[in-house]
Design goal:
Shape: globular
Largest sheet: 5 strands, mixed
Radius of gyration: 28 Å
Number of domains: 3
Number of strands: 7
Helix content: 55-70%
Strand order of the largest sheet: 3-2-1-4-5
Distance between the termini: 39 Å
């Protein structure tokens, strides 16, 4: 856990409610002065001038700032200054704090900045000061997050293409190959409907498939034969023309996204190769080129950030939540958590069952107990975080055989299944 800034080191506490055009700021000096309020325009020069005034006024002493975000333009600007101690506040936490005093649901920016100041000045011991990681580590984290968003967009578009094709040109799903491939995009951009592809010569189709690394002659001949003899699902121009135009546009976007994801992969690989913990996270089964950099980004390089694996299990949302009221007891997975980090551990657990015998045995054990696929993966991710944390903390590579031997020494039921 980050070390708390001592009370006597702080010169002032500030609450900032950021906005697209203006930021509401409430501030109080630690010497007990009155609460001050001002508004700042969303302009870089205005924000940096205000920070310079803070530095001059408090002679470079520490100033704590509570802000309702962990990323974005404002926090990116404030993190540049070493005398500012940032306390990102979960929006849900602020909403609950607001409801405690305003049950009507009323909300405004000055009120929120004042609540942030009150939360910071009275409950700072319950908040975690955010200490920025190294530039390389933060760059890797942002690259991984943005790459995943690109993948989400690609999945959404390919699902939309599949849905549209089923309405007027379902045979294309058998002829284009992988729906998220360059071959599929080029096919649909050139021939978005059956009539268009049936007008093409056989030699043109053969050349197309070969240029897209489809080398198996039997597959090419089968597809061309099916194209020539295919019957249209519908010939209504009112349906075919609008939907085929949509498919062409979506295919163009998917092709662009494929290139963008490849560029992200290239930059992530270059950056991760230089990462101090590259060998540690690369040693885990199933981590690969995608999950290993994401695991490194989730842990960061600051070993003092997490005191125990349980902190990361809770922070990531992998640890379950227990709700108890009277005789009622409800245990469920966490909803309020960093979604990308939770997804990282979840997807790594999914990959690990293909490469780790004990992980596969544990997953099968959870399924045998009645857990669904995702619940079993969360349970497996919970175990993996403990192992990941210890390797990361001790700077040691993961050794599958060493862990299996540890399971054997403790008499784990997984040993029989792995054997």
């Amino acid at each position: 856990m980050n070390k708390m800034v001592k009370e006597q080191e702080l010169a002032a506490c500030v609450g900032v409610d950021w906005g697209d055009t203006k930021h509401s700021v409430h501030m109080q000096a630690m010497d007990g002065g009155r609460v001050e309020w001002l508004e700042l325009e969303q302009k870089p020069d205005v924000l940096h001038e205000w920070v310079a005034q803070l530095r001059q006024r408090f002679q470079g002493r520490k100033v704590a700032i509570a802000i309702e975000q962990r990323k974005g333009a404002v926090i990116h600007a404030l993190m540049m200054y070493d005398f500012l101690v940032l306390y990102p506040v979960n929006p849900k936490a602020l909403a609950r704090y607001r409801e405690a005093f305003q049950t009507s649901g009323a909300k405004d920016d000055p009120g929120d900045s004042k609540l942030l100041l009150d939360l910071l000045s009275k409950h700072r011991d319950q908040l975690r000061a955010w200490i920025p990681d190294t530039i390389q580590a933060r760059k890797l984290q942002l690259l991984c997050e943005q790459r995943r968003k690109m993948v989400h967009q690609r999945v959404a578009l390919t699902n939309r293409i599949t849905s549209l094709l089923k309405q007027y040109f379902p045979q294309a799903l058998d002829w284009v190959g992988d729906i998220a491939s360059i071959q599929c995009c080029d096919f649909l951009m050139n021939w978005p409907d059956l009539a268009a592809v049936q007008r093409v010569r056989k030699s043109t189709l053969e050349k197309f498939y070969r240029s897209h690394n489809c080398r198996k002659a039997s597959v090419i001949d089968q597809r061309i034969a099916e194209i020539s003899s295919a019957c249209s699902l519908t010939g209504d121009p009112a349906i075919v023309e609008p939907l085929s135009l949509c498919v062409q546009i979506y295919a163009t976007q998917v092709r662009t996204l494929i290139g963008a994801i490849q560029e992200f992969d290239k930059r992530i690989a270059q950056l991760f190769a230089q990462h101090a913990d590259h060998d540690i996270f690369d040693s885990f089964p199933g981590a690969g080129d995608v999950c290993a950099p994401r695991l490194a980004a989730a842990f960061g390089t600051d070993r003092s950030r997490w005191d125990s694996a349980s902190e990361l299990q809770s922070h990531s949302g992998i640890a379950p939540v227990t709700e108890r009221s009277g005789k009622a007891l409800w245990i469920h997975h966490r909803l309020g958590c960093p979604k990308f980090i939770k997804q990282t551990f979840h997807e790594f657990a999914d990959q690990s069952i293909r490469f780790s015998e004990w992980a596969r045995a544990y997953y099968d054990q959870m399924r045998a107990r009645g857990k669904d696929h995702h619940a079993a993966l969360r349970a497996l991710a919970y175990k993996w975080i403990r192992i990941l944390f210890r390797c990361w903390k001790d700077r040691k590579l993961y050794d599958e055989q060493h862990y299996v031997q540890s399971l054997r020494r403790h008499g784990s039921s997984l040993i029989e299944k792995t054997a």
